[in-house]
Fold each of these.
Amino acid sequence: MNLTKNQFKEDYVKRLTLTFAQTTTEASLEHKYLALGKLIRDYISESWAETNNYYTKKKCKQIYYFSMEFLLGRLLNSYLLNLNIRDVVKDGLRDLGIDLDTLLELEPDPALGNGGLGRLAACFMDSLASLGFPGHGCGIRFKHGLFNQKIINGYQKELLNNWLKEDFLWEIKKPEKTVTVRFGGVVNLVNTPNGIEPVYSGCEEIDAVPYDIPILGSNMETVNTLRLFSAELPEEEIDLNGLQKGDYQKFIDKKFAVEAISQILYPDDSSFQGKLLRLKQEYFFVSAGLQTILKRYKKLKESIHKFSDFVGIHINDTHPAIAVGELMRLLLDEEGLDWDSAWDITVKTLAYTNHTILAEAMEKWPYDMFKKTVPRILMIIEEIDRRFCEEVSKKYEEDYSKIDSMRIIYNGEVRMANLAIIGSHSINGVAKIHTEILKNRELHDFYLLYPERFNNKTNGITHRRWLKNANPELYKLVIEKSGPECLNDTNKFINFLKYINDDNVLQTLDKIKFKNKEKVVAFVKNKYNIDINPFSIFDVQVKRLHGYKRQLLNVFNIIYLYNQLKQNPELDIVPRTFFFGAKAAPSYYLAKNIIKLINSVANVINNDPDIRNKIKVVFLENYGVSIAELIIPAGDVSEQISTASKEASGTGNMKFMMNGAVTLATLDGANVEIYDEVGDNNIVIFGLTSQEVMDLEKNRTYNFRDILNSNPDLQKILTQLSDGTFSENKEEFKDILNHIYGEGDPYFVLKDFSAYVEAQNKINTLYENRRGWLQMCLVNIAHSGKFSSDNSIRKYAEDIWHIKEVKRGE
Ligand code: 26W
């Protein structure tokens, strides 16, 4: 937008005075922040209304991205950047004696997601709006987001996240757009003059109250909507439940049970637990979202048969897969369509993305729980299942194993992935290798049945948040050198390659990285009182803690290095600082035990004078989007070391690459594509391949003892886990030891250990050649544009959603 400094100052002072009846000198920092936020909201509002009106007027096909999680991160700085007024605002505030960066730090970071899946949804929202696509988000307004992690004596403690403690600036409550969601009760199908109709009795009805957050595009005209629903007790219920009769307890219990639905985000992204409340959450936002979409559709006055020409709905993993049943219900019961028409519309409207192949994370609901909670949906799913079996048996005749593997209801469970696949016209994985594994192994039978539905959409990240906002100096350099065409097309980052031999550019890169590292040094000193060396290699592994992500492999190498340095303090290595940031699911004991190990190892190493500060270990508490924005720009080495075949894609790998780090990786997920882009000389690859892992798993031929017996270094490390080296309590690391000795090292940590140590040595050698290292960083940055979520979204738009960019002027 066009805004002069003086206009901004005038607007700001006015906003502050009108809202808080204070001048800039009297106002508290909090009020200064709030006034700025409210002013920016004003700036956005007009375009927001215009965008919506335009979409309706032009009847643009709109996409709704249904996701249980949206890990947005702070929004104020993004809004300023996308409005292109950050510099004006910063200067204007400075004139008023206010520091913008201090205000930005006051914004709460809404953590409405666990990790990769939720952050991907947020990147996609940004790209949709920035490219001018009509695409909105739909999810839950959790009162409490992902827990805040506190490390106490090395252990993870979970504290309640309370991001709504102060008003959240960016949401607008829309009570008039409330819809009703129905749970439980009994449904009977009765014959009426209008045909068969479901009659409900004894159900529970809940209000889904929408809160809208504007998603502002960098194109400065599109403002899409993220609509999050909150569960409330309907007003009539308050009466019925006895407020007037004085029966307060009953009322309180009921209100509590209803509001529970949007109280808290499940913090587990590693194992499916089949909890009733989670099923209710899923149905709650899916039903509310679909009802809203249908209401909007009615305003277009188009035939319901054309629904999928105007609406596309994307299912982000299986969490919203119940949409298949709910959309069928709405079309059959509310719109009065026949089965075949309803089914045709449903499949054409829905598309599904798979984000994991870990068996323990697959959603399978107990049949009885499903039936009690959403009886009408179960009836419909049973009919879908029956028809599906009929169709498949025509094709495969008596091959029952095929039918059993694909049908939805099986063994007393409702399998949500199967439901999503059968009810969608498109099924995609999130990286080439992941999609291949889906087609050839996990979902092979489905692939044979519906080959045309399967496609790959490699993940991406928004360079606006992960470069422009997190690392503004590097962004400036890339744009300046690679040309303005980069602004609209990150593929043009590749022009940066021209500077591969330009010493000035290489030195600038070096300086920018160093400054970013100094910021981290100051943060770590201030927060943990640990001194770290900005000249050391910043080796970073930040992501959820999970066995397959193998933080354990990283720690084992650190212990190995420690042992080496103890034996030979003169050992010539480049100083290193190992950073970890990771939350563990509260009930995931192995993961929590690994956090304790990292902290215990850190404590010993950081305080051992023999080590002479050659290595340091830092655990960054409460890793989330905000910490990521600090640490990723400072990373030299990006640790992407999952057991091959297990990480669907990864997106941290792309963020580090874009910020000029060298990837140390297995050939897993999108690492494979990063490798293909930058080539063998600009990445360090090690370890088992996916195929090798899958073969070992299939043949069950892996025996960790074979490795252990021939590797004294590993023997020593495992011994140290129970001999008092890292903890006085010799039982301290029993979950880790059991993971190796009891479970047989399921993620091949020991198997890949030597290769990893060798790869780390290679990093050391590469880093010693300063110029060569900087050239690698440059190559990585230049190729990172390929992994912008703008590219991913363009492909979703073209191949799956069939939507076009909207230019309002035209
Ligand atoms: C237990 C319920 C559950 C199961 C799976 C909750 C959450 C999940 C998610 C699907 C896990 C997830 O976040 N997957 C990650 O998705 C990213 C975005 O596609 C990928 O980059 C990661 O590789 C993948 O692990």
Note: The chain has a mean pLDDT of 96.
Amino acid sequence: MPSWTELALECARVARAGLRIPQEESPVAVVLGSGLGAFAEQLEGARGLPFSELPGFPRATVQGHKGRLVYGMLSNAPVLALQGRLHGYEGHDAATVAFPARVLATLGARALVVTNAAGGTNPSFAPGELMRITDHINFTGKNPLLGPNEDQLGPRFPDLTHAYDARLAEALEEAARASNQKLRAGVYLMMNGPSYETPAEVRMARAMGADAVGMSTVPEVIVAAHMGLPVCGISCITNLAAGISQHPLTHQEVIEVAKAVEGKFLDLLRALVPRALAAVPPRRALA
Ligand code: HPA
């Protein structure tokens, strides 16, 4: 079995050749959550590779994975975007879920912008609002770094104090002001899913200090921190979490609200990318 390091190096080589990513470039990387795929279509000179052509990515699951790694330019900033992501609830372990983020870091991304849909546990939140992730609670009982440490990538016991980078947080706040958008801020708690939470779990999440709950993002953030890649996280609050809202929660509702918010979310991302590029220094690629 190849190590994650070997797989990430191999995948990065394939991506660099296939997408013609210049070696000296240090792009802004973006993980596009539900309903945000259109962002990748807006990149100039965009070229993409399906996950199925990227070594180390899992073979398509039952539903068939529609996912691509896309490279292109936005306002003169090089961007690497993951259109679609892997989820633990599909049966992947946390290291597999986080592998694409390791590839982005291996390609020399300077910043990782992670986006998702989440349920609001903070009763002052309203569906359709966007939230800057200030910190997270890993409530999955899993960690992508379980197993032997891959010393080439990072330390055995990585610090997560500053996993959500202050410079990128400021860049995001500035992007929100520039695009005239209200931006909330709060703590994201990750559950395994795929069932939504019970009202008691939502009360627990709230008592633990969470403002939003979701089923993604944390594995990617942990491997990014491990590899010294600064992160900026944004949640789209698609619904009030179970029990805060009295009506039953459906995936349909999550998709509909994400769709309705897509325009302003894309505006915010467009405003963020050049600011993120300026906010943090380039990183060196491993492959
Ligand atoms: N819970 C968990 N994940 C979610 C939710 C939720 O309420 N909404 C969107 N993703």
Note: The beta strands are 28-32, 44-50, 68-74, 77-83, 111-120, 130-138, 183-190, 212-214, 231-240.
Amino acid sequence: MDKMLSISVVLLGGTISMAPSKNEKGNSGEGVVPSITADELCNAVPGIEKIASVKPKCIKLIASANLDIMDVILLKKIIEELAEKDISDGVVIIQGTDTMEEMAFALDLMLDVKIPVIFTGAMRSANMVSADGPSNILGAVIAATYKPLANSGVVVLMNDEIHAARFVQKCHTRDVGAFKSLNGGKVGQICEGKVLLSAPVKKKQSFQIVNAHPVPKVGLIKATLGDPGDLLEYYISENYQGLVIEAFGAGHLPEKWLPLLDRVIAKMPVILCSRTAEGPVFENSYGYPGAEIDLIARGLVPAGILDGPKARLYLMISIMAGQEICKPDY
Ligand code: ASP
């Protein structure tokens, strides 16, 4: 009989760990709050003990809006140690869905290990009918035992679907199928308790962080109809180290932004991405002032398919790695 694989389950919090709050009289207060431990979550998954020897560990119990890049660095250290010392054959990270795509992408940019690393969470808290937490944990543990997934870098498993960190986005506030791979196919799915790969994605670059203190201030601004662009001034006066602009369509900004934009570019790297959900920013099609050819000539770096939040992490991590800011290889 094959040896049972050892899978570490690291909990950060999120809806999956939430239950109705209690007020000081012990009565149910308003709304759900993080309170369920990593052990309790894993114990509530029927059949998990047949898949792997699961080692739950709670490092935080918070809503995912409160996570930040230092938590990604903490996860990197934990996972590297588990992999290097042969303690775990795979790692599952459980957190809130609100920032899961950013945490997964940032970790993917920093981590280089030979074991599967899977993020999961839940859209429904444990007290709700048809809570999706237990099946997501089960799917994630199954995925973490599937060695070939390590080649895809960090992935997200939700609703039995496996998504590469660079493509995944939360696209719905409520649906258990909220996570989709935009700009690329799903890596695979769980079917009858097994991983089926469909479009295996290859892990790309990873960055060596050389300076994480202080965390670089990198902003994100979105172009909107008729906006005069005054906010650009803020990033200069507040000494930001980088800026990402979610431009219209294929990468277009109002002409009236250009004088201020030139001042921003003189101070910091600026990445150009699209506020449109799918498709890369263009580089060589439109010739008017404020269109992508002009913006790139002024010094903006095109983001490829990365959306604003992911381009911001890419820029932040490139700065932390002391790397020249170049077009992401996606
Ligand atoms: N709604 C969130 C979740 O799905 C809460 C959070 O992200 O922590 O977990």
Note: The chain has two domains: 6-197, 218-320.
Amino acid sequence: MSSETENPPKHIAIIMDGNGRWAKSRNLPRWKGHEAGAESVREVIDACIEANVQYLTLYAFSTENWNRPKPEVTALMKLLEKFLVSHTSDLQKNNVKLQAIGRLKDLTQGPMNALSKTISETKNNTKLNLILALSYGSREEIVDAVNNIIKLTKEGNLDNTELTTSSFEKHLYTSNIPDPDLLIRTSGEMRISNFLLWQISYSEIFISEKLWPDFNKNDLFEAIDSYNKRDRRYGEV
Ligand code: FPP
């Protein structure tokens, strides 16, 4: 057994960056980079299963991504739908449970239907929790949580005692998901880009120079090895 599978992080979150640059360097349209990126998604899911990672969260579409040119948004939505339709049986076979976080009501009909279907079909699976962040923004998530708290309080369904960090986070999209232990970002960029701001407070960060479509199983294992060498102190000594 290799070191990755002996002591893996429980939850890995990934900012999948660099699809556009990957396509540009090959004189291809940007959507070709996203298409190649979907292959890396498949490979990283398999690698997480092999390494006994329990939660994998992928930043697949941000709230800001809606501002990209319409053809690119349409291509990403189509790709998501195609991925879900063509991979549900593999997720099922590999005992992967799909979940999604974000303002899901913003999604167009096709991907939304495919998403609901895959979530429902895989809901009893137990090996890996795959969480897709879709129409996701961390500031939006925090505002949605606050609005939910206000609404429940007005309705008399929440007592008026002071919030704590643990009572507050029950209102985030991730209420049933542990915080990421390891955050990976590809393409060498040192940014968080509105991703899981609350949840990554104590995550270890690994920046890969690889563009997302080039990121493979060995790169994931390298990130896990790096994580295993860290000394996590959570602000203590
Ligand atoms: C960032 O690269 C990537 C995205 C905005 C989309 C991520 C989507 C995928 C990996 C493919 C589909 C996903 C699933 C779950 C099937 P970028 O376009 O910002 O790259 P750039 O910075 O080089 O332009």
Note: Helices lie at 3-6, 19-24, 30-50, 70-93, 109-121, 138-154, 165-168, 217-228.
